[in-house]
Amino acid sequence: MSDPFVVIGGDAAGLSAASKCKREAPDREVIVFEKGRWVSYAHCGEPYFVKGEVEKLENLLSLTPEDVAERDIDLRREHEVTAVDPDAETVTVEGPDGEVDQPYGDLLVATGARAVTGPIEGTDLDGAFPLHGLDDAAAIRAFLLDPSEDALADVGGQDFVDRERVERFGAMMPPETAAIVGGGYVGVEMAEALSAHGLDVHVFQRSGHLISPFGEAVGEAVAEELREQGVTLHLGEEVDRLAGDGRVERLECAGGTALDVDLAVVGVGVAPNTGLLEGTGIELGEDGAVAVDEYGETARDGIYAAGDCAEDDHTVTGEPAWVPLGLTANRAGRAVGATVAGDPTPVGEVAGTAVVKAFEQECGRVGLLEDGAEDAGFDPVTETITAGSRSGYYPGAVETTVTLVADRDSERLLGGTIVGTDRAAVRIDTVATALEADMTVGELERTDLAYAPPFSPVWDPILVAAKVLNGKLKD
Amino acid sequence: MSDPFVVIGGDAAGLSAASKCKREAPDREVIVFEKGRWVSYAHCGEPYFVKGEVEKLENLLSLTPEDVAERDIDLRREHEVTAVDPDAETVTVEGPDGEVDQPYGDLLVATGARAVTGPIEGTDLDGAFPLHGLDDAAAIRAFLLDPSEDALADVGGQDFVDRERVERFGAMMPPETAAIVGGGYVGVEMAEALSAHGLDVHVFQRSGHLISPFGEAVGEAVAEELREQGVTLHLGEEVDRLAGDGRVERLECAGGTALDVDLAVVGVGVAPNTGLLEGTGIELGEDGAVAVDEYGETARDGIYAAGDCAEDDHTVTGEPAWVPLGLTANRAGRAVGATVAGDPTPVGEVAGTAVVKAFEQECGRVGLLEDGAEDAGFDPVTETITAGSRSGYYPGAVETTVTLVADRDSERLLGGTIVGTDRAAVRIDTVATALEADMTVGELERTDLAYAPPFSPVWDPILVAAKVLNGKLKD
């Protein structure tokens, strides 16, 4: 019997791999080391928990430790892997009972990503949160409560949550003015969440555009939506420091802007959690994520990486890319589990498909936009159009803005974005599927998409964009 | 200068072709003969006009005759083409001023489809309507009005509408019990429209399933929805005759069921309007639609056909198929217009993508389902799954049912359906795009579709279906 399949990290990729391996090879021993108390939680649901649309922390758990145990997976929470020795084929684990060396037959590194706070000072003050994990979400929601309320009962998750932190923030007077540092999608979602609690919300974004991976057209629509919803935007403002006496009291920008705040959410980026592999000889890509092959395996036999700590091949370029996303983590984990169980399964490519809700606006993006396409050596041609979401005569038809990018010579579709309030986001899947299939703009234009007055005009907004872009390519 | 581009039929395909040709070759003379008074109207919007969500008939016009004239198209309404002579390259036209022979350089047959009433007796009684054209829609809505209301003002479209018919039905007492004969998508849409007016609505469907082209899972969901909304379904009931003394009073089925009704909408099917071509030697397919090549051209040089009277190549089989749909008509017309103007443009293939709203249920279908796939010589494997429309913890997540069909040996995706109340319909475009690209189920399973809690779970319902079907194929 071979040594166990050891998984480092008990979230999406790790537990998907463990579960799939146990299902396909029930006799294989599978051990999952998780350094924290939480496992298998929905990171993407945190803003909606803070907003209050998701009632309790436990609603965000995909699997409880009991569910994991039922799958006959040996899950060890509060066990941190501190070293990997590829030659000895062991990992060093620190747990409540001390340090041990655990041999592995196959190893999956699924350590995820960590929030980075950049060069901003004062992010360790009370009232400044990275929003990266359920304990942050719990503390923010407790902070929003009136001290007379029972914070622990409100946030839920009593078996796992950092109770001291929840009670401490629950006892404070609720904040009135919030700064969100970073206008990426977490920032946009948090603006909605905090506005729902009646806070005066300010978003600070160093560049001139919100959610920059979604391109200009979407960024502008989101900025307009946020302003209409009462959020104050500070675009082109670089936050220098958060200041205060133990608690956040004030935000200061490099350009001189300052604002009195009593809550700050800092969401300026994430980085792959791969420090553990330093010195092991396992190759990291330029973003610091683990380099893997099409099966998620590193250059060392039997060592895999998946999820937010790993690279994937990009659908459009075919080159390795670091695009941490939930579906990719789940799918890659599942594929590695199958491969380890004896059924070699490709992890699939990543197109960078992402959707985000900004109050009433639904936004989507996929593939390469203008800048990314140029960086990848394409000669991009971009077209942005606005078309109706339904037949013009049907109630509820609204403008939907679509951007498509194609390569000039090959006419191959490279990427696209969409924004609108009527079923806009899921339409990006059409473009994602076209990218997966390496379709040209002409092929997309001739695709037989759905039409019925309540759902789409005769020419769906994506078809309109393809038609106009194709015309531009032929000019 | 060549003879004019003559178009027979002034609806979607005809006017798309005329407009595109004029845009690309402004000097070419373009004549459109339309036998009726209406041009370029949205047939698919009629149920919503009857329902009252679309206020006036004119809202359903994409182009007015004035718009058409502005494009420098010679539109001749109330001119019926009665014969085509391919050898002489002329058409015979009967208009208000008599009969003329019109020479053509290129000819487009865009005569659309006509409603068939099958062997049902009594469909010519007052109060029985086919719902095929704006005059039918106008008469039904006038019928629904209290006689004290001004029917002509209510329905609108005074420049075109059959005023006598509107006034006659407007003067009648409104119906209370409606029979819808035929449970296809027009039947389902009309059930919603008439229910909104408070009528007691009965749907009669000869087969055991509603909207049969959408397959069983969708048919059952729609049946459940209609029943919940108070519609009485008579499935497996073949309507024999409508009876009454000048007016519809009673419906009788072959099996003995009878019902007193004062309104009947008969929507049992359509057939291509190609009688005009009898004896011309122009080939028709097995459904009676015009056989054309990839540019929409018949075997006779310079004679084209497009829209509901013509075949298209099917995306999945590559064989000619008659699938009358709005997008196809527009796209094929536009392509023929470009080709005639000197830019040969393929009309594109048809995947049979269709979506329909049944009260709150959104339904979609595309490609070949089990029966169609068998008929086409595939060995179909079918899987139906139910998955959440959003992350389970996010408010508004509902069950969405997806069916996918694949070929056993090649594992190629052949078709699919979807039904659910939360953004279900437009998701069928993902499957339509996959069919256009000849994707396998495995390729679809690995496609990077969008995930965000408000819009989709980590594994989108279509990915869940692909995953399960792929597992079945590997067994």
Fold and architecture overview:
The structure is a homodimer. The first copy, chain A, has about 475 residues and is of the alpha/beta class. Chain A has helices at about 10-25, 45-50, 65-70, 135-145, 150-155, 165-170, 185-195, 215-230, 325-340, 370-375, 430-435, 440-445, 460-475, and strands at about 5-10, 30-35, 75, 80-85, 90-95, 100-105, 105-110, 115, 130, 175-180, 200-205, 230-235, 240-245, 250-255, 260, 265, 270, 305, 310-315, 320, 355-360, 360-365, 380-390, 400-405, 415-420. Chain A folds into three domains: about 5-35 and about 80-115 and about 270-340, FAD/NAD(P)-binding domain, CATH 3.50.50; about 130-270, FAD/NAD(P)-binding domain, CATH 3.50.50.60; about 360-475, FAD/NAD(P)-binding domain (3-Layer(bba) Sandwich). Helices cover about 25% and strands about 25% of the residues of chain A. In chain A, the strands form seven sheets. Chain A has a five-stranded parallel β-sheet. In chain A, helix 1 runs parallel beside helix 9 and helix 4 packs parallel to helix 6 (about 165-170). The longest helix of chain A is centred in the C-terminal third of the chain and has 15 residues, at about 325-340. The radius of gyration of chain A is 23 Å and the shape is globular. At the A-B interface, helix 9, strand 21, strand 22 and helix 11 of A face helix 9, strand 21, strand 22 and helix 11 of B.
